[in-house]
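Human
Can I borrow your eye for a moment on a structure tokenisation matter? Give me a protein, with the fold worked out from its sequence. Write it directly below this note and I will take it from there.

Assistant
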Amino acid sequence: MNKTNLENYANEITDKFSKMITKTYQNNDEIHFNVELNDMPKICDYIYKNLNARLATIICSDKQKNGGGFVIRYVFEKEDVFIFVVVSVGQDLSFPSIALQIPSAALYEREIKDMFGLIPTGNPDTRPLVLHEHWPEGIYPLRKGFKLETKPGRQEKEYQFLKVQGEGINEIPVGPVHAGIIEPGHFRFSILGENIINLETRLFYTHKGIEKLAESMKLDDVLFLSERIAGDESVANSTAYCQAIEKISQVEIPNRAKKIRTIFGELERIYNHAGTLAGISTDASFPFGAARLNILKERLMQLNESLSGSRILFGVNKIGGVRCNITDENKKLILKTVSEISDDFEKIIHLLKSKSSFMDRLRGTGTIPKKTAHELGVVGVVARCIGIDVDTRRDHPYASYSLHDHKTPQQLMQHKIEMEKRTGDALTRFEIRVNEVQDSFGIIRESLDLDDDALFTSIPVHLEPFRSALGCAESHRGQTLHWVMIGENNSIFRYKVRTASFCNWSIIEQAVLNDIVPDFPLVNKSLDLSYSGNDL
């Protein structure tokens, strides 16, 4: 973290709003401003527009039993700093919406309405988001008074989808049950001929109550829970969770553990990107390329199992470090496998790029408008494909990522030019994933120079109640954030998770506009969105 950045932003906001800020404090790369509820929209608007900061998440917590009512934290990200704007909600249980000024806030506000019963005044869309129409009114799962064993009744109510009117307009409902081994999600298309003129998504059919479950579990058990938010993001999610607890504990993990986290993080990235590229090839009607790529994915997952005992890398992380060691024998296996797969990967990609029918199928399909992508706060490949240069591994270096990717000024300039040329279509997303796989091979090789060090550092036996911290990591889909507030006796008072999929699902409604219905599977696969990672 660059302390100068944190101090500069802290000073600028303090100077501008000194009369509105009631309290300020810092926590590593976090700067917190406590403000009055009515002053919050003005301050958030300034941070978003004048500082050009991205809204990373909004966190609500119920502190009624502790005399604090409901507290909402608006978390903005600027370079390597997280800026928190903290407010308390009054007895009327409402708070001013900022969705019209910051569009990405809309879903967070609807989530807070569902889970806590607070009303975002001024939000143009207050329909249920997480809780579906059969959930009874007046029951809010993330309030402290809601017990895990509660079995709510069922009410009969219909969700109000947007109706597109006009001559020749038809609707195509797809899902939530699909013809395949896939999680549920509903897509409501409005079409004119085959052209898609509107798409509305409905998710959260597999909501698992992750955040509520965590409040009844021990810290180490929540680590296992974090791995199961989405099985293909187990390393990223557990890394972010561990970093939050480590930040609260004020411990630094050993260098060996940092490099091992990096290695497993990149192995997770590679096997998932290979699978997504295979899916793109399938949906572009080139099954031979898909078969070849799926063979590579299988070999990578076999390597995962040899190193960790799990094909999807469960059990790698530990609070304070890692559980899985990488021995000298493991190093040889990694180098041999990576070398072979890297060579085969290059040949397959060369084959795909030589097929004009394949490249033309991707070019111009599922194009994302840059302005819309910025407003919706998308992350990962979905952001980078339209020239929004975000990557948590670089912006908030964790594990051993600070040791990698040191570009010369000329390389930085070339990188900037390349980012500006990106068009946001399925072909760009394909090319970015190819480049990221190639980069990951290099990061793994560099990280195998392991320090002769311990695998973990012990955290304090007793953590101070109501301390909190934000942990972050970059999955193959993009940034994942885990915010933890410790309760009494090392319990978890509040656990807030925001994966990349929560940010990115909304963009599919924009990406398919003016495409035809048969384009949807290809657009969907190129975005690589997760149902489970969204439906917490």
